[in-house]
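Tokens as discussed.
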């Protein structure tokens, strides 16, 4: 009886996961959530003596939710998380760069897919719905899948401080010199330094953070101009809305605009 109820629970939960597709006007979400990567080796997952095949993301997410709510079996969790991890590898190997994020169903506008760019890499973000009473239902699945995908993409995952840098302008003005650092949500940055309103130094590249530590790495300049600054692992500390450079040659910058 217990095994029957478990099977029924997973079936209904998976069916509920599919139901969020009905509000999506395109087929991208449903195609990806039910996709099985080519060459992916399917393993069965055993939960409470019941065997489940894990051939798509929707089924894995449902099993992860049940596992989170109903068991503390470390061996069982490790087996399930390994399958989610390998599914992320399969997606990446098949050229499907996907990340997940949770979304309260009340805040949904009917679109469950979003195209984003991180470090100039095109990524499809899939949104998994939850209610006010089960906001943690997708946490384990999202954590395991996203961590592996970020590692494969060679992009540092966001932490609880990343939003302080997203879409932010830092600025300094002294005498006739103006310095501006723009941090974009897609992890790119633009650095500009002006003298009497004339551009004298500039740089562009990618940023990442580790809590309040910001790291800038410039792209290689294509035109080899003398006024191009090449940042290589340039570290800055965000403190009280000021960016303080580790390298004393750079100026301390103040946040002037957030979420531009």
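Sequence:
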């Amino acid at each position: 009886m217990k095994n029957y109820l478990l099977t029924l629970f997973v079936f209904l939960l998976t069916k509920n996961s599919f139901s969020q597709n009905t509000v999506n006007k395109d087929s991208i979400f449903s195609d990806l959530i039910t996709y099985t990567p080519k060459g992916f080796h399917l393993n069965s997952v055993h939960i409470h003596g019941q065997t489940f095949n894990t051939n798509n993301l929707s089924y894995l997410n449902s099993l992860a939710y049940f596992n989170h709510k109903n068991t503390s079996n470390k061996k069982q969790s490790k087996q399930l998380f390994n399958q989610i991890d390998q599914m992320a590898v399969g997606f990446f190997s098949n050229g499907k760069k996907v990340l997940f994020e949770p979304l309260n169903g009340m805040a949904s506008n009917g679109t469950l897919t979003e195209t984003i760019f991180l470090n100039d890499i095109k990524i499809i973000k899939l949104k998994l719905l939850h209610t006010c009473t089960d906001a943690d239902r997708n946490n384990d699945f999202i954590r395991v899948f996203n961590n592996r995908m970020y590692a494969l993409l060679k992009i540092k995952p966001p932490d609880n401080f990343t939003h302080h840098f997203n879409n932010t302008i830092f600025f300094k003005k002294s005498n006739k010199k103006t310095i501006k650092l723009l941090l974009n949500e897609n992890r790119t940055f633009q650095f500009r330094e002006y003298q009497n309103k004339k551009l004298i130094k500039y740089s562009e590249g990618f940023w990442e953070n580790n809590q309040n530590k910001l790291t800038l790495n410039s792209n290689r300049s294509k035109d080899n101009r003398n006024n191009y600054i090449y940042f290589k692992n340039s570290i800055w500390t965000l403190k009280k809305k000021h960016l303080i450079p580790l390298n004393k040659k750079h100026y301390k910058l103040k946040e002037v605009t957030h979420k531009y």
